[in-house]
Give the backbone structure.
Amino acid sequence: MAAIVRQQVRDLPHEMTTTGFELPGYRVVESVGVVRGVVVRSRSIFGTMWGGLQTIRGGNIGMFTELAERARGQAFETMLHQAHESGANAVIAIRYDATEIMSGVTEVLCYGTAVVVESEE
């Protein structure tokens, strides 16, 4: 799959997504199938050192939080792009998973069921 182009992702509004199995106000008329976005991220040596220093004082480690949020966001956007390319107009049952592949390298997976929905009105 080509790199994600932000303008393409906007074609599937984020409000047409849910972690639930139903989208309030809509009914599922077709299940397109599972869609996913996968991102593999690593920390830079400087990020690792700075994050390590932040652990000394305790609390939230902003450097690592920002890295995690960017990875989740990119995985989500990639999943939405795949859903749009498959002809869906919504994604239900969205979930995240993360696995450490090796020290400092993490895979973030966002997946859900791409569906075609119609308004109940």
